[in-house]
Design goal:
The chain is an all-alpha fold and 117 residues long. 73% of the residues lie in helices and 0% in strands. The chain contains 5 helices and no strands.
């Protein structure tokens, strides 16, 4: 009978030890899964704000807008350079409104395309 009691007691202790051993990592992982939100430094917050202001812009235009914001430029960021296609469109519209034809149009277009940044 004492052997039987010893086996039951040992089984109970083993079961308790196994339960508590497996319960601890779970409790620790649940507290680690929800860390407190890390506060941003002032420069990180400033960068975040500048990125939000430049939302919708892409590529070099985004970079220049964020850079200007980070430097503290209060003026709007410089607009991106016109592509060749955009230059052609605006110069064609100007030539059409002036009703230019032939050599006068060619000369105007040459000057107009070289004048646009």
């Amino acid at each position: 009978m004492s052997l039987r009691f010893s086996l039951i007691a040992a089984s109970a202790v083993l079961a308790f030890a196994a339960t508590s051993a497996f319960a601890s990592p779970q409790a620790a992982s649940t507290t680690a899964a929800a860390p407190a939100k890390k506060e941003l430094t002032s420069s990180q917050q400033h960068m975040s704000d500048c990125s939000k202001q430049a939302k919708g812009k892409k590529g070099d235009e985004f970079k220049s807008a964020v850079s200007a914001c980070m430097k503290g430029d209060t003026a709007a960021a410089p607009t991106a350079k016109q592509t060749q296609q955009e230059k052609m469109k605006s110069c064609n519209v100007d030539a059409k409104t002036k009703a230019l034809k032939g050599d006068a149009r060619k000369s105007f277009m040459k000057d107009c395309l070289s004048a646009h940044p």
